[in-house]
Amino acid sequence: MMSTKSLFLCFLLCLAAAPLRSDVLWDRAVQIYEANSNLLPGRIEIRLTEYGGRNRRVRNEEHGVYRTLLGDDGSPEVEILRVIRNGEDITDERRSDNGGGGGFASLFGPPQGSDVPDDDDEGGGFGGPGESSPFDPDLQHLVSYSRNSESRLINGRRTAAFSFRQQSADDPDQFVTGTAWLDMTSGAPLLVESTLDPLPSRFLNTFLFRSHFAERSDGWYLTRLDVDVVAQILLVRREFESVITFSEHFRN
Fold first, then answer.
1. Percent of the chain residues past pLDDT 70, beyond the cut
2. How crowded is the C-beta side of 209, counted as CA atoms within 13 Å?
3. So where are the chain's domains?
4. 80 and 98 in contact (C-beta within 8 Å)?
5. Residue 5 CB coordination number (10 Å)
């Protein structure tokens, strides 16, 4: 017969081996993501402003309008409808550069025509929110999270804040870290603020994403993505502010 001490040790070992208890709000967010993962934006608008120097002098402005189409294999493709850069229509040039369009990932890369350096020897293939979500049910084994005490009123809804850290599926040394605000009733994510850790280039000082979501009768989806980038090489400083809006959603 096992002694009381042995039973107690077995009990402690079982506790140590048991998975950590999940949070019901986060679980709901994962379920909402899965139920709406086939919602795609039919229309995408990107407004990019490039600033130079610490006085933030505007160097370039660009406004692009894109449409989402489904390819022959059913995968989403982005068609360029119109791109205006510094008052000049460069739509044909962009279509030529991109072969007429591209995948969603092409919208989140470095802005064309900018002088942000390519740092081929650094960084990984982790594209941030344009590539993956901390609520993807297939990636939960790569995500750690904890509810913190912060709360916000977003779109008239009270939210709970969760700090999270998501490991890249391709590079164990690459992470997305940030805070997600979930509706305290439904669990729907309404705002996610995140960054890459480490940053993908030694020339980048800041790389911030703010993802805004809406939960409506027709589903839950991304409505706006703000991207702020600050790069510096010696005394040369560049800042980029992008506002990407998504509308006319449809199910694939």
1. 79
2. 26
3. 38-99, 136-241
4. yes
5. 8
